[in-house]
Design a protein that fits this description.
The chain is of the alpha+beta class and 443 residues long. It contains 17 helices and 22 strands. The chain is elongated, with a radius of gyration of 36 Å.
Length: 443
């Protein structure tokens, strides 16, 4: 080990490395062996790098000053050209910057430029959530590929629903393909949370439409519809004209009939003929037979990646007097069970039959009342009762509609009428009769 004085007090320690014999031999022209001492200083590259940075800080042998705002950073053209294709091109060609002392850089924050230069001379940098985008932007400008990759890795590993959209926009703006793909995949998988962020409301229209057209992972199409309407209404004056394009990007036929009715009653939709037409088209799709639906080639009729859950409805008797109602959601994927809003039934009322209505659940009780549970809002709402009194009939779901079949009416007459619920008018209508009267069971 040997200590050698460096420049202006800068010192290093040399580590010499020799092969296992301490030397190697080579044959000269006469066949004799000339000893060769192979020496490799493993600290040399670090010494040179540290020495160059020491020279920079001491402003020795420097030949250029980078200026950004009020910041002036003295550097060596050789180091900048070696580490950055941007500076290499700037200093290699017959450009003004190749021979002037002060070079002004626009569009770069002074503090970020200082951080970048420090990295070029030391190979070290602290990337944080606060500076990652700015450092990546500067690294992209200066064409420092290793730093670009490091920032991209950091942003991918620290992506969450609150910053995903910002990263998506940033990657799109700077043509960062891998980072964009990661942010896009994240937004698709976590859309239900991503759409609640402030950044989502700042999306430009082109990116919003692109996002809504993807096979998002959703509990229901209502989530995408509500997110899109929130985006429109957050700046209605400037975005109102985009409503037809936004509705066209949604899968409106997969909204529940109840939600379609609410949509058609929304003033900003009902006052736009093109939007009204889109809602009416979705209703027609829902009234098609299954084989007609399957023959359609429209993307509007292709389901998204919905997350399926089990809704458990029931009640228990406490001391044979009080009935306690419960609504439970079970997620088979995460195996998590959650208590939801219990139904607001009367004291002796309990569920007799239930069926899905779109993404909602319709139930009828032993008192003949009809209720609708909306899982995406976690609320219960009362709906109209069938046209005639009916006990022990069963609700049946088919093609996004609910039918009431069987049971008996007044004087215990077995009923043959089949009724269909119409959510757009909150009414029931008799649509057919059973070839054979059916009593679907007793309580």
């Amino acid at each position: 080990m040997q200590s050698i004085s460096g420049m202006a007090g800068f010192e290093r320690t040399l580590n010499s490395h020799v092969d296992s014999k301490g030397a190697c031999s080579e044959q000269n022209a006469e066949g004799a062996s000339d000893p060769v001492f192979k020496f490799r200083d493993s600290s040399h590259s670090a010494f040179v790098l540290q020495g160059l940075n020491h020279l920079r800080l001491s402003k020795k042998f420097t030949d250029v000053v980078l200026c950004a705002g009020d910041e002036e950073i003295t550097c060596h053209r050789a180091v900048l050209a070696l580490c950055s294709c941007y500076f290499n091109a700037m200093f290699s060609h017959d450009m003004q910057e190749s021979h002037i002392q002060n070079v002004t850089l626009n569009g770069v924050q002074p503090s970020i430029l200082s951080t970048i230069i420090e990295f070029l001379y030391t190979g070290e940098i602290d990337i944080t959530e606060q500076n990652a985008q700015a450092v990546l932007e500067a690294a992209s400008l200066f064409q420092i590929s290793s730093l670009e990759a490091a920032c991209s890795i950091f942003m991918r590993e620290h992506m969450d629903p609150s910053n995903c959209i910002g990263i998506l926009q940033f990657a799109d703006l700077h043509n960062l393909t891998d980072l964009y793909k990661k942010a896009e995949d994240f937004s698709i998988a976590q859309f239900s949370e991503v759409c609640l962020s402030e950044e989502f409301l700042q999306l430009p229209e082109a990116l919003l439409l692109k996002c809504l057209s993807k096979d998002l992972y959703l509990d229901s199409e209502e989530t995408a519809y509500e997110a899109a309407m929130n985006w429109i209404k957050s700046d209605l004056e400037n975005r109102g004209g985009s409503l037809p394009a936004v509705l066209n990007a949604l899968r409106l036929p997969f909204l529940s009939p109840y939600s379609l009715t609410k949509a058609s009653d929304d003033p900003i939709i009902s006052q736009n003929p093109e939007c009204v037409s889109a809602i009416e088209e979705a209703k027609r799709y829902q009234n098609m037979h299954l084989n007609e639906w399957q023959q359609l080639k429209s993307v509007k009729c292709e389901p998204r990646n919905y997350r399926e859950v089990v809704i458990i409805l029931g009640s228990m008797s406490i001391d044979d007097v009080e009935i306690q109602h419960k609504t439970i959601m079970y997620d088979p994927e995460s195996r998590v069970r959650s208590l939801l809003e219990p139904p607001p039934f009367q004291k002796y009322e309990k569920i007799q039959t239930a069926a899905p209505l779109g993404s909602n659940v319709m139930v009828r009780t032993n008192l003949g009342n009809a209720w609708l549970y909306l899982p995406h809002e976690n609320v219960w709402t009362g709906v109209a009762s069938p046209t005639q009194p009916r006990w022990h009939g069963k609700l049946v779901a088919c093609n996004n509609h609910v039918y009431l079949v069987g049971g008996y009416g007044l004087n215990r007459t077995v009923l043959e009428n089949v009724e269909k619920y119409k959510p757009d008018t909150n009414t029931w209508e008799v649509v057919t009769t059973l070839p054979t009267q059916l009593l679907t069971g007793t309580q």
